């Protein structure tokens, strides 16, 4: 009998300005791969964006995610559908990893990284019990919890794959003898495309570890329905542990709450869902902060014990913070009378800073030290003193706002907004100086001074090493880094080694069978590529472009093997030959810019100019001025997906075009015809955003279209796609409550398999009309949002892009038994009743060797569905099987016998 392969266990609203990197890099020739080339792009002057423009930019990112999910009939995201999706996904994962699991495809899943680049990280903590400071726990906002014991040389994901962990805050119990207890809080209310306005995933309360972060369990008192904002623990800003009582404090749900191990008590209530923050001294004095937008509770509060007796010690009234949003606080470890309050401001700067001295009950305004870097060449009209979101200090509405104090110096302060800054003596130094984020006030390039690795803008965590106060760790939208904060020029070390936390929108693979090159466009982390022969491994990637990554493609239409990529809101580029911008003149696109390259005919490139379709049959030579404008596919409706038929181009070739209204169109001979030949082939009753279209690479009649919205029919398949009017069949079955994000069809060894990426993992079926979908790679991909799928039939590899845990790759094999593997049905066993409803009783014949008998149930096509050991009652529960015919095989040390049975 054929044995299944062992799966290899390899362990979203942001605000971002366009950060265009001025050089591409990749290898010139896949066959030789002996050199790299760099194509310089023309530097551009940056236009300063107003706060209103930046606010709109923020909204576009979360609106992209919201539009993918909203029920088009109600205008709302149905929480009951999301709850059902979560329950079904957990049930399927439980069955998949159990002994009697139904087997999905024979596929080997591996990580494709990036293993050297990190994603959005809001919290990290150095283990106080490790004198080497090598044990660190960090959290990705849509990726889970990771732990390192070698100082970031490698990381292990320690949160489970059967949940979605939007980690925002982490804390270790500081009490002696209790340092094994850790907590993390979940749910980000601002900045996450995977949570804003309920768009995808809220938090799931607070989780606790009692074994130093190796395993985690949810605190039952904070449990909630993750998909519905029904709990004060859906959004977590800060958690802290009292150093003497061990009580857990949480800034959540517009209040400061305290947990004594049994009961939660509201210590302070803001009267609304406002930002909050916490800091506790070593003696147990609790400082709490509420947003400046809260008229009655804004400012900083203090309690000598943390149990009642809170007094407001600072506000917009006294001493006059001028805060219009988030406030964060930090205590100076070397002098705990000193506390800093860093806040969103409506004053001269976007942020203000105040210093509290508890011994004198007084505040000092330190806002005059906020960074506002001078123009280094004021006489040169090509330089600009202020780059929007870069200089002067920018905090993006409080999305990135952090303050901390050097453990041995109360005047040495670090702050983070878009950039990281330090001031070594706040009482005498005139201004904070840049130490991370963007490289300078003249560029949106990444900071990489002092011979260090590239740092990343959008700073969320700044933590000093408790054992070496000169060392500073950062958590940013680019993961985890380490530096000597006292150096004259601070140089960062990249610690993102298998810290797999990237949020991809789109991925693509090199069509050449022998190539391992892959490319992906990621939220706020630009475009990355890896898999070059010169790369150290398959997971190491290099950054190809900045901004928000969008659609991507790799072409074999030219010997230079060009990359195609872009940034948000419409701009696209080709890196060779004659690299540069190739955006169609006058065109704009949706926020996640979309274009599509025919994988069989790489000369064919199509650009979605919102509702207008542009095309070229010369992708390697096209310029902004040489596209063909075909006009609007349907006026006012954005083009969201395109897929071409496979094979050499001919007049029989076709192009599917999916819109954000549910409409699906087909254009035959798409490189030669106009939209007057366009045919509406929308499946009956379809609505919502077309999220995926796939065509069988060996049969252009077999196709699938998927929809991402809740409350709609989300999967349709056809077997006559080449017909003038294809006939569509609903194929959602047990995924009827799921948000479907991507689609692919594969064929290996004659077995056709359908894949769909969902908001909770990857699923497949060989017959989705008649057989339920099965979860794939539960131990690797788990419940990650599978945002993109790219299949390469030349080597049967499926590239999987997730929005939170980077890329994976599956090497596919047929799961259908070969002729020699087929059970011997002639040499049959006896079982009753046939047909059966729930239980099959097996008569064990004398010819079997005594002892345990293994059994296996196959579909009639030979796919293994379940297996186990025959129990003492000689009964097999088949209640979980759908109606139909099946093969039961008994296996002993001496022989195998089989029988066909029917399930009613």
From TrEMBL:
Keyword terms of this UniProt record: Membrane, Signal, Transmembrane, Transmembrane helix
Pfam families named in the record: Por_Secre_tail
Transmembrane segment boundaries: 7-24
Record keyword Transmembrane helix present: yes
Boundaries of every Secretion system C-terminal sorting domain copy: 832-897
Keyword Membrane: yes
Official protein name in the record: Por secretion system C-terminal sorting domain-containing protein
Organism in which the protein naturally occurs: Aquimarina amphilecti
Organism lineage string: Bacteria, Pseudomonadati, Bacteroidota, Flavobacteriia, Flavobacteriales
